[in-house]
Write a structure and sequence with these properties.
Elements (H helix, E strand, L loop, with lengths): L2 E6 L5 H14 L5 E6 L24 H6 L2 E9 L2 E2 L1 H7 L3 H6 L6 E8 L6 H14 L3 E2 L8 H4 L10 E3 L10 H25 L1
Parallel strand pairs: 1-2, 1-3, 3-5, 5-6, 5-7
Antiparallel strand pairs: 3-4
Helix pairs in contact: 1-7
């Protein structure tokens, strides 16, 4: 069964919760599966090794997960208006996929969580789109037909779902944020299906 890869790095759990909501949205679409995969932190110690299986949460991603996916949802906490280092580190390892055009023509979307309301959510989402565009992916946002974009007082952007976690990272996802995450999952799944049916 074709799958949407929901790939994320999460330090305090909110980006992981967004990933699970996106995955649920994907699986609302018949004959589509979501594959949750996480990324390990980047070590400050040269050539440090880490277990290949995380203590908790989704398994760590491998390049093959990305190569075989029908679409991608990529998530990261905001770090100074940019994606977190583990996400960039993983993307920097995808040159072989880029050279083979393995991701070209596949749909992709991005999502983020941040502790401050004006902490660079939108610039983080835009920064995550850049390598996906280099891969030739078809980047999807959220249209304003998703009326939660007009009502949200927490996170949510046309560039992709976002979450405001609060200064103590203790704010749960709002109802609007949850619905926008699911909406991205559905949109990616439907787009992947449409593209795949056009190729067959």
């Amino acid at each position: 069964m074709p799958y949407i890869l929901v790939l994320y790095y999460s330090r305090r759990g909110t980006t992981a919760e967004m990933a699970r909501r996106i995955a649920r949205g994907v699986e609302e679409i018949p004959n589509m599966e979501a594959r949750l995969r996480s990324l390990p932190p980047v070590s400050t110690v040269c050539e440090a090794t880490e277990d290949s299986i995380p203590e908790a949460g989704a398994p760590y991603a491998e390049l093959e997960d990305l190569r075989q996916c029908a679409g991608l949802a990529l998530g990261s906490p905001t770090r100074f208006g940019n994606m977190a280092a583990p996400v960039k580190y993983f993307l920097d390892s995808t040159s072989a996929l880029w050279m083979n055009g393995a991701l070209a023509g596949k749909p992709a979307g991005v999502f983020t969580s941040t502790s401050s309301l004006h902490g660079g959510q939108e610039s983080t989402l835009l920064s995550m789109m850049l390598p996906l565009l280099h891969h030739g992916m078809l980047v999807l946002g959220l249209p304003y037909g998703e009326t939660d974009l007009l009502r949200t007082r927490t996170g949510g952007t046309p560039y992709g779902p976002s979450h405001w976690a609060g200064h103590e990272n203790d704010q749960p996802l709002s109802e609007e944020e949850k619905r926008l995450c699911a909406a991205l999952g559905r949109r990616l799944a439907r787009t992947a299906q449409a593209l795949n049916s056009g190729r067959s």
